[in-house]
Protein backbone atom coordinates (compact mmCIF):
# COMPACT_ATOMS: atom_id res chain seq x y z
CA UNK A 1 0.00 0.00 0.00
CA UNK A 2 1.48 3.33 -1.04
CA UNK A 3 0.53 6.15 1.31
CA UNK A 4 1.57 8.79 -1.15
CA UNK A 5 -1.17 7.60 -3.48
CA UNK A 6 -3.72 8.47 -0.84
CA UNK A 7 -4.93 11.49 -2.75
CA UNK A 8 -5.33 9.57 -5.97
CA UNK A 9 -8.03 7.29 -4.64
CA UNK A 10 -9.64 10.18 -2.84
CA UNK A 11 -12.62 11.91 -4.29
CA UNK A 12 -14.48 15.09 -3.62
CA UNK A 13 -18.12 14.11 -3.57
CA UNK A 14 -20.43 11.47 -2.24
CA UNK A 15 -21.44 10.63 -5.79
CA UNK A 16 -17.81 9.79 -6.59
CA UNK A 17 -17.46 7.78 -3.39
CA UNK A 18 -20.21 5.54 -4.67
CA UNK A 19 -18.98 4.82 -8.15
CA UNK A 20 -15.24 4.73 -8.19
CA UNK A 21 -12.39 3.92 -5.92
CA UNK A 22 -11.01 0.70 -4.72
CA UNK A 23 -12.30 -2.81 -4.69
CA UNK A 24 -10.84 -4.77 -1.80
CA UNK A 25 -11.94 -8.01 -3.45
CA UNK A 26 -13.31 -9.45 -0.25
CA UNK A 27 -16.94 -9.95 0.71
CA UNK A 28 -17.76 -8.25 3.99
CA UNK A 29 -20.61 -8.78 6.43
CA UNK A 30 -22.28 -5.34 6.35
CA UNK A 31 -25.23 -4.25 8.49
CA UNK A 32 -26.92 -1.10 7.29
CA UNK A 33 -28.87 1.31 9.48
CA UNK A 34 -30.93 4.07 7.93
CA UNK A 35 -33.68 5.93 9.78
CA UNK A 36 -34.74 7.68 6.58
CA UNK A 37 -36.44 4.43 5.52
CA UNK A 38 -38.56 4.41 8.69
CA UNK A 39 -39.53 8.02 7.98
CA UNK A 40 -40.81 6.85 4.61
CA UNK A 41 -43.32 4.60 6.38
CA UNK A 42 -45.35 7.77 6.84
CA UNK A 43 -46.15 7.73 3.12
CA UNK A 44 -47.64 4.23 3.15
CA UNK A 45 -49.30 4.55 6.56
CA UNK A 46 -52.75 5.55 5.25
CA UNK A 47 -53.34 1.80 4.79
CA UNK A 48 -52.44 0.96 8.39
CA UNK A 49 -55.27 0.20 10.84
CA UNK A 50 -55.85 2.40 13.89
CA UNK A 51 -55.66 -0.02 16.80
CA UNK A 52 -55.02 1.98 19.94
CA UNK A 53 -56.13 5.17 21.68
CA UNK A 54 -53.97 6.70 24.40
CA UNK A 55 -53.93 9.90 26.39
CA UNK A 56 -51.26 11.68 28.41
CA UNK A 57 -50.54 15.16 29.70
CA UNK A 58 -47.25 15.52 27.84
CA UNK A 59 -46.02 14.06 24.54
CA UNK A 60 -42.28 14.08 23.77
CA UNK A 61 -41.41 13.61 20.09
CA UNK A 62 -37.95 12.07 19.62
CA UNK A 63 -35.63 10.11 21.90
CA UNK A 64 -32.35 11.88 21.13
CA UNK A 65 -30.43 13.68 23.86
CA UNK A 66 -32.92 16.59 23.88
CA UNK A 67 -36.04 14.40 24.11
CA UNK A 68 -34.47 12.24 26.81
CA UNK A 69 -33.42 15.30 28.79
CA UNK A 70 -37.01 16.60 28.59
CA UNK A 71 -38.21 13.17 29.77
CA UNK A 72 -35.81 13.41 32.72
CA UNK A 73 -37.31 16.78 33.67
CA UNK A 74 -40.81 15.23 33.45
CA UNK A 75 -39.89 11.88 35.00
CA UNK A 76 -42.45 12.16 37.80
CA UNK A 77 -45.25 13.33 35.53
CA UNK A 78 -47.69 11.90 33.01
CA UNK A 79 -45.65 11.83 29.77
CA UNK A 80 -45.11 9.53 26.80
CA UNK A 81 -42.01 9.63 24.57
CA UNK A 82 -41.96 8.22 21.03
CA UNK A 83 -38.76 7.60 19.06
CA UNK A 84 -38.89 6.50 15.43
CA UNK A 85 -35.71 4.42 15.51
CA UNK A 86 -35.41 1.07 17.27
CA UNK A 87 -32.54 2.66 19.24
CA UNK A 88 -32.74 5.66 21.52
CA UNK A 89 -30.11 8.37 21.14
CA UNK A 90 -30.54 9.90 17.65
CA UNK A 91 -27.12 11.19 16.63
CA UNK A 92 -25.84 9.98 20.03
CA UNK A 93 -27.02 6.38 19.56
CA UNK A 94 -25.06 3.23 20.34
CA UNK A 95 -25.59 -0.52 20.35
CA UNK A 96 -23.94 -3.81 21.24
CA UNK A 97 -22.33 -6.39 19.01
CA UNK A 98 -21.93 -9.44 21.19
CA UNK A 99 -20.07 -8.22 24.25
CA UNK A 100 -18.66 -5.11 22.63
CA UNK A 101 -20.15 -1.62 22.53
CA UNK A 102 -20.50 0.35 19.32
CA UNK A 103 -20.93 4.10 18.98
CA UNK A 104 -23.08 5.22 16.04
CA UNK A 105 -22.61 8.98 16.34
CA UNK A 106 -21.37 11.34 19.04
CA UNK A 107 -18.26 9.93 20.68
CA UNK A 108 -17.17 12.29 23.46
CA UNK A 109 -17.50 15.27 25.70
CA UNK A 110 -15.02 17.40 27.66
CA UNK A 111 -15.02 18.52 31.31
CA UNK A 112 -17.21 21.52 32.03
CA UNK A 113 -16.13 24.94 33.40
CA UNK A 114 -18.01 26.25 36.46
CA UNK A 115 -19.77 29.00 34.48
CA UNK A 116 -21.66 26.49 32.30
CA UNK A 117 -25.46 26.21 32.68
CA UNK A 118 -26.33 25.05 36.18
CA UNK A 119 -29.52 23.23 35.13
CA UNK A 120 -27.56 20.78 32.98
CA UNK A 121 -24.71 20.45 35.48
CA UNK A 122 -27.21 19.68 38.26
CA UNK A 123 -28.88 17.06 36.09
CA UNK A 124 -25.55 15.41 35.21
CA UNK A 125 -24.55 15.49 38.89
CA UNK A 126 -27.90 13.93 39.95
CA UNK A 127 -27.27 11.16 37.44
CA UNK A 128 -23.80 10.59 38.93
CA UNK A 129 -22.07 11.51 35.64
CA UNK A 130 -20.13 14.56 36.92
CA UNK A 131 -19.03 16.09 40.21
CA UNK A 132 -17.72 19.52 41.11
CA UNK A 133 -13.98 19.62 41.71
CA UNK A 134 -13.30 22.52 44.07
CA UNK A 135 -9.56 22.54 43.38
CA UNK A 136 -9.91 23.24 39.64
CA UNK A 137 -13.36 24.84 40.02
CA UNK A 138 -14.66 22.70 37.17
CA UNK A 139 -17.04 19.77 36.70
CA UNK A 140 -15.26 16.48 36.12
CA UNK A 141 -16.44 13.07 35.02
CA UNK A 142 -17.01 10.45 37.71
CA UNK A 143 -16.20 7.39 35.56
CA UNK A 144 -12.43 7.94 35.37
CA UNK A 145 -11.97 4.75 33.38
CA UNK A 146 -13.44 6.47 30.33
CA UNK A 147 -10.99 9.38 30.28
CA UNK A 148 -8.62 9.26 27.34
CA UNK A 149 -4.94 9.42 28.34
CA UNK A 150 -3.22 12.58 27.06
CA UNK A 151 -0.55 10.72 25.10
CA UNK A 152 -3.19 8.70 23.21
CA UNK A 153 -5.52 11.53 22.27
CA UNK A 154 -4.88 12.09 18.59
CA UNK A 155 -2.72 11.80 15.52
CA UNK A 156 -3.09 13.61 12.21
CA UNK A 157 -2.65 12.00 8.81
CA UNK A 158 -2.37 14.89 6.36
CA UNK A 159 -2.24 13.81 2.71
CA UNK A 160 -0.27 10.69 3.60
CA UNK A 161 2.07 12.24 6.19
CA UNK A 162 1.68 12.04 9.98
CA UNK A 163 1.66 15.31 11.96
CA UNK A 164 0.88 16.33 15.54
CA UNK A 165 -1.74 19.04 15.27
CA UNK A 166 -4.49 19.86 12.81
CA UNK A 167 -3.57 23.57 12.91
CA UNK A 168 -0.11 23.94 11.37
CA UNK A 169 2.56 25.27 13.76
CA UNK A 170 4.00 28.74 13.17
CA UNK A 171 3.31 32.43 13.66
CA UNK A 172 -0.28 32.16 12.36
CA UNK A 173 -1.16 29.62 15.00
CA UNK A 174 0.44 31.73 17.76
CA UNK A 175 -1.52 34.81 16.64
CA UNK A 176 -4.71 32.73 16.43
CA UNK A 177 -4.29 31.34 19.95
CA UNK A 178 -3.63 34.84 21.36
CA UNK A 179 -6.84 36.02 19.68
CA UNK A 180 -8.92 33.12 21.03
CA UNK A 181 -7.53 33.56 24.55
CA UNK A 182 -9.24 36.97 24.68
CA UNK A 183 -12.62 35.19 24.62
CA UNK A 184 -11.75 32.37 26.97
CA UNK A 185 -14.16 32.48 29.91
CA UNK A 186 -16.74 34.46 27.87
CA UNK A 187 -18.12 31.58 25.80
CA UNK A 188 -20.22 29.41 28.14
CA UNK A 189 -22.59 26.65 27.25
CA UNK A 190 -25.47 26.65 26.60
CA UNK A 191 -24.94 29.43 24.09
CA UNK A 192 -28.05 31.25 25.36
CA UNK A 193 -25.84 32.35 28.30
CA UNK A 194 -23.35 34.21 26.07
CA UNK A 195 -23.27 37.93 26.93
CA UNK A 196 -25.24 40.10 24.48
CA UNK A 197 -22.10 42.14 23.71
CA UNK A 198 -20.82 39.16 21.68
CA UNK A 199 -24.03 38.55 19.73
CA UNK A 200 -22.82 40.64 16.80
CA UNK A 201 -20.29 37.87 16.03
CA UNK A 202 -23.24 35.77 15.00
CA UNK A 203 -23.85 37.85 11.91
CA UNK A 204 -20.57 37.27 10.01
CA UNK A 205 -18.67 34.17 8.96
CA UNK A 206 -15.78 32.99 11.13
CA UNK A 207 -13.33 33.17 8.23
CA UNK A 208 -14.36 36.68 7.34
CA UNK A 209 -14.06 37.80 10.96
CA UNK A 210 -10.64 36.17 11.33
CA UNK A 211 -9.25 37.59 8.10
CA UNK A 212 -9.89 41.07 9.44
CA UNK A 213 -7.72 40.33 12.47
CA UNK A 214 -4.96 37.87 11.57
CA UNK A 215 -3.33 36.29 8.56
CA UNK A 216 -5.09 33.12 7.41
CA UNK A 217 -3.19 31.08 4.82
CA UNK A 218 -4.89 28.36 2.78
CA UNK A 219 -3.08 25.75 4.86
CA UNK A 220 -4.25 27.30 8.13
CA UNK A 221 -7.81 27.63 6.83
CA UNK A 222 -7.74 23.93 5.90
CA UNK A 223 -6.93 23.08 9.52
CA UNK A 224 -9.72 25.34 10.80
CA UNK A 225 -12.15 23.81 8.32
CA UNK A 226 -11.27 20.34 9.49
CA UNK A 227 -11.89 21.19 13.16
CA UNK A 228 -15.16 22.99 12.52
CA UNK A 229 -16.53 20.40 10.15
CA UNK A 230 -15.84 17.72 12.73
CA UNK A 231 -18.10 19.45 15.28
CA UNK A 232 -20.38 21.73 13.27
CA UNK A 233 -20.71 20.02 9.89
CA UNK A 234 -19.21 22.93 7.89
CA UNK A 235 -16.02 24.96 7.57
CA UNK A 236 -14.83 28.42 8.65
CA UNK A 237 -16.41 30.25 5.71
CA UNK A 238 -19.82 28.69 6.42
CA UNK A 239 -20.18 28.92 10.21
CA UNK A 240 -20.64 32.15 12.14
CA UNK A 241 -17.80 33.87 13.98
CA UNK A 242 -19.72 33.26 17.22
CA UNK A 243 -19.75 29.50 16.56
CA UNK A 244 -16.06 29.54 15.56
CA UNK A 245 -14.90 31.56 18.57
CA UNK A 246 -17.02 29.37 20.82
CA UNK A 247 -15.34 26.24 19.42
CA UNK A 248 -11.87 27.43 20.42
CA UNK A 249 -12.69 29.45 23.57
CA UNK A 250 -15.51 27.59 25.36
CA UNK A 251 -13.03 25.79 27.62
CA UNK A 252 -9.62 26.88 28.97
CA UNK A 253 -7.83 24.83 26.28
CA UNK A 254 -4.67 26.92 26.28
CA UNK A 255 -4.15 27.31 30.04
CA UNK A 256 -5.52 24.28 31.95
CA UNK A 257 -5.93 20.54 31.43
CA UNK A 258 -9.34 19.66 29.94
CA UNK A 259 -10.54 16.06 30.43
CA UNK A 260 -11.61 14.09 27.36
CA UNK A 261 -14.36 11.61 28.22
CA UNK A 262 -15.16 8.86 25.72
CA UNK A 263 -16.83 5.59 26.72
CA UNK A 264 -16.78 2.82 24.07
CA UNK A 265 -20.47 3.43 23.29
CA UNK A 266 -19.75 7.18 22.93
CA UNK A 267 -22.42 9.61 24.11
CA UNK A 268 -24.94 6.79 24.17
CA UNK A 269 -23.49 6.50 27.70
CA UNK A 270 -25.51 9.64 28.61
CA UNK A 271 -28.66 8.17 27.04
CA UNK A 272 -28.24 4.96 29.06
CA UNK A 273 -27.81 6.91 32.29
CA UNK A 274 -30.91 9.02 31.63
CA UNK A 275 -32.95 6.00 30.53
CA UNK A 276 -32.08 4.18 33.76
CA UNK A 277 -33.77 6.98 35.72
CA UNK A 278 -37.03 6.97 33.70
CA UNK A 279 -40.24 4.95 33.95
CA UNK A 280 -39.64 2.47 31.09
CA UNK A 281 -43.31 2.03 30.21
CA UNK A 282 -43.40 5.68 29.07
CA UNK A 283 -40.62 5.31 26.47
CA UNK A 284 -41.49 3.80 23.09
CA UNK A 285 -38.97 3.12 20.32
CA UNK A 286 -39.85 2.20 16.69
CA UNK A 287 -42.74 4.70 16.83
CA UNK A 288 -42.94 7.56 14.37
CA UNK A 289 -45.02 10.61 15.27
CA UNK A 290 -46.79 11.27 11.98
CA UNK A 291 -49.08 14.23 12.62
CA UNK A 292 -49.99 16.68 15.35
CA UNK A 293 -53.29 18.54 15.11
CA UNK A 294 -54.72 21.08 17.57
CA UNK A 295 -57.97 19.85 19.11
CA UNK A 296 -60.11 20.97 22.09
CA UNK A 297 -57.39 23.05 23.81
CA UNK A 298 -54.95 20.17 23.35
CA UNK A 299 -53.59 18.01 20.54
CA UNK A 300 -54.62 14.92 18.63
CA UNK A 301 -51.59 12.98 17.45
CA UNK A 302 -51.16 10.07 15.05
CA UNK A 303 -48.29 7.73 15.77
CA UNK A 304 -47.09 4.87 13.56
CA UNK A 305 -45.96 1.68 15.26
CA UNK A 306 -43.17 0.79 12.80
CA UNK A 307 -42.99 -2.84 13.93
CA UNK A 308 -46.69 -3.71 13.83
CA UNK A 309 -47.55 -1.25 11.04
CA UNK A 310 -50.46 0.07 13.03
CA UNK A 311 -51.57 3.55 14.07
CA UNK A 312 -52.00 4.76 17.64
CA UNK A 313 -54.07 7.87 18.31
CA UNK A 314 -52.93 9.97 21.24
CA UNK A 315 -54.64 12.93 22.85
CA UNK A 316 -52.42 15.16 24.97
CA UNK A 317 -52.36 18.63 26.53
CA UNK A 318 -48.79 19.65 25.75
CA UNK A 319 -46.08 18.68 23.27
CA UNK A 320 -42.30 18.85 23.41
CA UNK A 321 -41.12 18.47 19.86
CA UNK A 322 -37.50 17.23 19.99
CA UNK A 323 -37.45 15.66 16.51
CA UNK A 324 -35.87 17.15 13.40
CA UNK A 325 -37.58 20.40 12.47
CA UNK A 326 -37.40 19.89 8.69
CA UNK A 327 -40.13 17.23 9.10
CA UNK A 328 -42.56 19.77 10.61
CA UNK A 329 -43.65 20.35 7.03
CA UNK A 330 -45.57 17.06 7.32
CA UNK A 331 -46.06 16.70 11.08
CA UNK A 332 -47.07 20.18 12.24
CA UNK A 333 -47.12 22.55 9.23
CA UNK A 334 -48.05 25.81 11.05
CA UNK A 335 -44.55 26.13 12.53
CA UNK A 336 -42.50 24.82 9.62
CA UNK A 337 -41.67 28.35 8.33
CA UNK A 338 -39.87 29.15 11.63
CA UNK A 339 -37.20 26.54 10.89
CA UNK A 340 -37.32 26.51 7.09
CA UNK A 341 -33.89 28.10 6.64
CA UNK A 342 -31.94 25.63 8.81
CA UNK A 343 -29.43 23.63 6.81
CA UNK A 344 -28.28 20.21 7.96
CA UNK A 345 -25.08 18.30 7.19
CA UNK A 346 -25.67 14.61 6.41
CA UNK A 347 -23.29 12.16 8.12
CA UNK A 348 -22.39 8.51 7.68
CA UNK A 349 -20.74 6.60 10.52
CA UNK A 350 -19.04 3.28 9.76
CA UNK A 351 -18.05 0.91 12.58
CA UNK A 352 -15.48 -1.63 11.43
CA UNK A 353 -15.02 -4.51 13.88
CA UNK A 354 -11.66 -6.29 13.69
CA UNK A 355 -10.27 -9.34 15.34
CA UNK A 356 -7.43 -8.44 17.66
CA UNK A 357 -4.53 -9.35 15.38
CA UNK A 358 -3.26 -5.80 14.80
CA UNK A 359 -0.17 -4.64 16.65
CA UNK A 360 -0.14 -0.91 15.76
CA UNK A 361 0.13 1.79 18.37
CA UNK A 362 -3.34 3.18 18.97
CA UNK A 363 -4.54 6.79 19.10
CA UNK A 364 -8.09 7.67 20.09
CA UNK A 365 -8.80 10.17 17.33
CA UNK A 366 -7.11 9.60 13.98
CA UNK A 367 -7.75 12.77 12.02
CA UNK A 368 -7.42 12.38 8.27
CA UNK A 369 -6.94 15.41 6.02
CA UNK A 370 -7.12 14.48 2.35
CA UNK A 371 -8.73 15.56 -0.89
CA UNK A 372 -11.79 13.62 0.19
CA UNK A 373 -13.27 16.44 2.22
CA UNK A 374 -16.08 14.21 3.55
CA UNK A 375 -13.72 11.81 5.31
CA UNK A 376 -12.83 13.08 8.78
CA UNK A 377 -10.97 10.07 10.16
CA UNK A 378 -11.75 7.51 12.82
CA UNK A 379 -11.84 6.75 16.52
CA UNK A 380 -9.87 3.66 17.54
CA UNK A 381 -11.37 1.75 20.48
CA UNK A 382 -7.93 0.35 21.30
CA UNK A 383 -6.86 3.77 22.65
CA UNK A 384 -9.71 3.79 25.16
CA UNK A 385 -8.60 2.77 28.63
CA UNK A 386 -11.47 0.27 28.53
CA UNK A 387 -10.26 -1.30 25.26
CA UNK A 388 -12.64 -4.15 24.50
CA UNK A 389 -10.09 -6.89 24.71
CA UNK A 390 -11.29 -9.43 22.23
CA UNK A 391 -12.08 -6.95 19.45
CA UNK A 392 -10.85 -3.65 18.02
CA UNK A 393 -13.34 -1.20 16.55
CA UNK A 394 -12.67 1.73 14.23
CA UNK A 395 -15.51 4.25 14.03
CA UNK A 396 -15.03 6.10 10.75
CA UNK A 397 -16.77 9.45 10.21
CA UNK A 398 -17.94 11.02 6.93
CA UNK A 399 -19.62 14.43 6.84
CA UNK A 400 -21.21 15.53 3.55
CA UNK A 401 -22.44 18.83 2.20
CA UNK A 402 -26.17 19.54 2.58
CA UNK A 403 -26.74 19.31 -1.18
CA UNK A 404 -25.15 15.85 -1.26
CA UNK A 405 -28.13 14.48 0.67
CA UNK A 406 -29.70 13.64 -2.68
CA UNK A 407 -27.11 10.88 -3.07
CA UNK A 408 -27.62 9.42 0.40
CA UNK A 409 -30.31 6.98 -0.71
CA UNK A 410 -27.79 5.41 -3.07
CA UNK A 411 -25.36 4.43 -0.31
CA UNK A 412 -27.46 1.47 0.78
CA UNK A 413 -27.66 0.16 -2.80
CA UNK A 414 -23.89 0.46 -3.15
CA UNK A 415 -22.85 -0.25 0.37
CA UNK A 416 -20.07 -2.67 -0.61
CA UNK A 417 -18.46 0.04 -2.79
CA UNK A 418 -18.78 2.58 -0.01
CA UNK A 419 -17.35 0.22 2.60
CA UNK A 420 -14.55 -0.94 0.26
CA UNK A 421 -13.42 2.63 -0.08
CA UNK A 422 -13.59 3.15 3.67
CA UNK A 423 -11.37 0.09 4.17
CA UNK A 424 -8.92 1.38 1.54
CA UNK A 425 -8.55 4.61 3.50
CA UNK A 426 -7.82 2.62 6.65
CA UNK A 427 -5.32 0.40 4.83
CA UNK A 428 -3.49 3.45 3.59
CA UNK A 429 -3.43 4.93 7.06
CA UNK A 430 -1.95 1.77 8.55
CA UNK A 431 0.09 0.90 5.46
CA UNK A 432 -1.03 -2.71 5.56
CA UNK A 433 -3.82 -4.95 4.36
CA UNK A 434 -6.72 -5.19 6.81
CA UNK A 435 -9.49 -6.94 4.90
CA UNK A 436 -8.86 -10.44 6.27
CA UNK A 437 -9.12 -9.24 9.85
CA UNK A 438 -12.54 -7.61 9.48
CA UNK A 439 -15.33 -9.44 11.25
CA UNK A 440 -18.27 -7.15 10.61
CA UNK A 441 -19.10 -3.65 9.38
CA UNK A 442 -21.97 -1.45 10.57
CA UNK A 443 -23.01 1.55 8.48
CA UNK A 444 -25.27 4.22 9.96
CA UNK A 445 -26.69 6.86 7.67
CA UNK A 446 -28.10 10.12 9.04
CA UNK A 447 -29.69 12.46 6.52
CA UNK A 448 -30.36 15.44 8.78
CA UNK A 449 -27.62 14.78 11.31
CA UNK A 450 -26.23 18.17 12.20
CA UNK A 451 -27.71 21.69 11.95
CA UNK A 452 -25.00 24.00 10.60
CA UNK A 453 -24.49 27.13 12.76
CA UNK A 454 -24.35 29.47 9.77
CA UNK A 455 -24.32 33.27 10.31
CA UNK A 456 -27.62 34.32 11.84
CA UNK A 457 -28.57 30.81 13.02
CA UNK A 458 -27.43 30.71 16.65
CA UNK A 459 -29.52 32.23 19.47
CA UNK A 460 -32.66 32.26 17.29
CA UNK A 461 -34.97 30.27 19.50
CA UNK A 462 -37.98 29.17 17.43
CA UNK A 463 -40.00 28.96 20.65
CA UNK A 464 -40.42 32.73 20.62
CA UNK A 465 -42.33 32.43 17.33
CA UNK A 466 -44.26 29.21 17.96
CA UNK A 467 -47.92 29.29 17.08
CA UNK A 468 -49.26 27.41 20.10
CA UNK A 469 -47.91 28.08 23.63
CA UNK A 470 -48.49 24.42 24.53
CA UNK A 471 -46.21 23.06 21.79
CA UNK A 472 -42.54 23.83 22.43
CA UNK A 473 -39.33 22.95 20.62
CA UNK A 474 -36.22 21.22 21.94
CA UNK A 475 -33.17 19.89 20.10
CA UNK A 476 -29.99 21.37 18.74
CA UNK A 477 -31.70 22.38 15.49
CA UNK A 478 -33.41 25.20 17.36
CA UNK A 479 -30.71 27.86 17.19
CA UNK A 480 -28.17 25.80 19.11
CA UNK A 481 -24.68 24.43 18.51
CA UNK A 482 -24.78 20.71 17.65
CA UNK A 483 -23.32 19.60 20.98
CA UNK A 484 -24.37 17.34 23.84
CA UNK A 485 -24.59 20.12 26.43
CA UNK A 486 -26.77 22.27 24.17
CA UNK A 487 -29.09 19.34 23.48
CA UNK A 488 -29.43 18.59 27.20
CA UNK A 489 -30.17 22.23 27.96
CA UNK A 490 -32.73 22.47 25.16
CA UNK A 491 -34.77 19.63 26.69
CA UNK A 492 -34.72 21.14 30.18
CA UNK A 493 -35.52 24.63 28.84
CA UNK A 494 -38.45 23.32 26.79
CA UNK A 495 -40.03 21.77 29.88
CA UNK A 496 -39.52 24.99 31.90
CA UNK A 497 -41.15 26.96 29.12
CA UNK A 498 -44.18 24.67 29.09
CA UNK A 499 -44.47 24.77 32.86
CA UNK A 500 -44.29 28.48 33.51
CA UNK A 501 -45.11 29.68 30.01
CA UNK A 502 -42.96 32.76 30.48
CA UNK A 503 -39.39 31.59 30.14
CA UNK A 504 -37.88 31.95 26.69
CA UNK A 505 -34.85 29.67 26.51
C1 LIG B 1 -21.73 11.86 13.56
C2 LIG B 1 -21.93 12.82 14.69
C3 LIG B 1 -20.98 12.91 15.70
C4 LIG B 1 -21.16 13.79 16.76
N1 LIG B 1 -20.23 13.85 17.75
C5 LIG B 1 -20.44 14.62 18.84
C6 LIG B 1 -19.59 14.55 19.96
O1 LIG B 1 -18.64 13.76 19.95
N2 LIG B 1 -19.86 15.34 21.04
C7 LIG B 1 -20.94 16.18 21.06
O2 LIG B 1 -21.15 16.90 22.06
N3 LIG B 1 -21.79 16.24 20.03
C8 LIG B 1 -21.58 15.47 18.93
N4 LIG B 1 -22.47 15.46 17.90
C9 LIG B 1 -23.67 16.27 18.03
C10 LIG B 1 -24.67 15.59 19.01
O3 LIG B 1 -24.78 14.25 18.69
C11 LIG B 1 -25.96 16.22 18.88
O4 LIG B 1 -25.85 17.58 19.08
C12 LIG B 1 -27.03 15.70 19.85
O5 LIG B 1 -26.96 14.31 20.04
C13 LIG B 1 -28.33 16.12 19.24
O6 LIG B 1 -29.39 15.67 20.01
P1 LIG B 1 -30.88 16.09 19.63
O7 LIG B 1 -31.75 15.37 20.60
O8 LIG B 1 -30.99 17.55 19.52
O9 LIG B 1 -31.12 15.55 18.14
P2 LIG B 1 -31.08 14.09 17.51
O10 LIG B 1 -29.97 13.30 18.05
O11 LIG B 1 -31.12 14.32 16.04
O12 LIG B 1 -32.42 13.44 18.01
C14 LIG B 1 -33.65 13.63 17.38
C15 LIG B 1 -34.43 12.34 17.57
O13 LIG B 1 -35.77 12.51 17.18
C16 LIG B 1 -36.17 11.36 16.48
N5 LIG B 1 -37.30 11.75 15.64
C17 LIG B 1 -37.28 12.66 14.64
N6 LIG B 1 -38.50 12.79 14.11
C18 LIG B 1 -39.31 11.94 14.79
C19 LIG B 1 -40.70 11.62 14.71
N7 LIG B 1 -41.49 12.22 13.82
N8 LIG B 1 -41.20 10.70 15.56
C20 LIG B 1 -40.40 10.08 16.48
N9 LIG B 1 -39.07 10.36 16.60
C21 LIG B 1 -38.55 11.27 15.78
C22 LIG B 1 -34.93 10.94 15.71
O14 LIG B 1 -34.99 9.59 15.30
C23 LIG B 1 -33.84 11.21 16.73
O15 LIG B 1 -33.60 10.09 17.57
C24 LIG B 1 -22.31 14.60 16.82
C25 LIG B 1 -23.27 14.52 15.80
C26 LIG B 1 -23.08 13.65 14.75
C27 LIG B 1 -24.10 13.57 13.66
In short:
With 505 residues, the chain is an alpha/beta fold.
Describe, in plain words, how this protein is organized in 3D:
There is one protein chain. α5 (65-73) runs parallel beside α11 and α5 (65-73) packs across α16 (484-500). This protein has helices at residues 6-9, 14-19, 35-39, 41-44, 65-73, 118-126, 171-181, 206-211, 218-232, 241-249, 268-276, 328-331, 336-339, 408-413, 415-430, 484-500, and strands at residues 30-34, 50-61, 79-82, 94-97, 100-103, 109-110, 112-113, 130-133, 138-141, 154-158, 161-163, 260-261, 283-284, 287-295, 298-305, 310-321, 344-354, 365-369, 375-380, 392-399, 438-451, 471-473. The chain has an eight-stranded mixed beta sheet with strand order 1-21-17-20-19-18-10-11, with helices on both faces. Strands 2, 3, 13, 14, 15, 16 and 22 form a seven-stranded mixed beta sheet that branches. It is an alpha/beta fold. It is 27% helix and 26% strand. The relative contact order is 0.22. Residues 1-12 have low confidence and may be disordered. It has three domains: 3-34 and 343-451, Protoporphyrinogen oxidase, mitochondrial, domain 2 (Polyamine Oxidase, Chain A, domain 2, Alpha-Beta Complex), CATH 3.90.660; 38-104 and 266-341 and 453-500, FAD/NAD(P)-binding domain (3-Layer(bba) Sandwich), CATH 3.50.50; 130-259, Guanine Nucleotide Dissociation Inhibitor, domain 1, CATH 1.10.405. The radius of gyration is 22 Å and the shape is globular. The termini are far apart. Flavin-adenine dinucleotide is lined by residues 35, 61-67, 82-85, 90-92, 105-109, 267, 288-289, 322-324, 327, 331, 347, 349, 397, 446, 449-450, 475-476, 482-484, 487.
Amino acid sequence: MNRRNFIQISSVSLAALLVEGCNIDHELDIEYMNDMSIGHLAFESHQFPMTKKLSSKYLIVGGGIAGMSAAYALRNEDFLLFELSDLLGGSSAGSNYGKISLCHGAHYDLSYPADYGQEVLNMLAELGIVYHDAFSNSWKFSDKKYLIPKNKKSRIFDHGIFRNDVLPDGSEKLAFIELMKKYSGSMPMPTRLIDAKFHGFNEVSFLNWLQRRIEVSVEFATGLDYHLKDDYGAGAAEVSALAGIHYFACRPYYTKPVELFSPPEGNYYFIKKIYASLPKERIHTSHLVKSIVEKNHGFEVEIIDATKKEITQLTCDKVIYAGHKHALKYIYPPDYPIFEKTTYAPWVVVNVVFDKSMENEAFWQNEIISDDKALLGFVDSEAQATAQNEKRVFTVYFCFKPDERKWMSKIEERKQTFVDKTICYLEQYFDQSLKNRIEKVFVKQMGHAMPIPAPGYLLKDGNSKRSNPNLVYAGVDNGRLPLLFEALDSGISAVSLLRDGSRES
